[in-house]
Design a protein that fits this description.
- The protein is an all-alpha fold.
- The termini are close together.
- The protein has helices at 2-31, 40-65.
- Helix 1 (2-31) runs antiparallel to helix 2.
């Protein structure tokens, strides 16, 4: 039981770090500090990564609260 809690908590924390990193990158892009190449494959890969992180966070919160 305690190991599951630690596992789910670590997924939540890693997801929050990944989302924070994404927010920083978006902010730098808007300020013009980061140049992004407009390649569709990179955008698709970023979208898939973002969806996976959101899924892990939702899965972890759901398992912690409704178990």
């Amino acid at each position: 039981m305690f190991i599951k809690f630690i596992f789910y908590l670590s997924l939540i924390i890693l997801g929050m770090f990944a989302m924070r990193f994404g927010i920083i990158q978006i902010r730098q892009y808007k300020q013009g500090k980061t140049k992004l190449k407009k390649k569709s494959l990179e955008q698709i890969a970023f979208g898939i990564f973002f969806i996976i992180i959101l899924g892990l966070i939702i899965y972890s919160v759901n398992s912690l609260l409704f178990n």
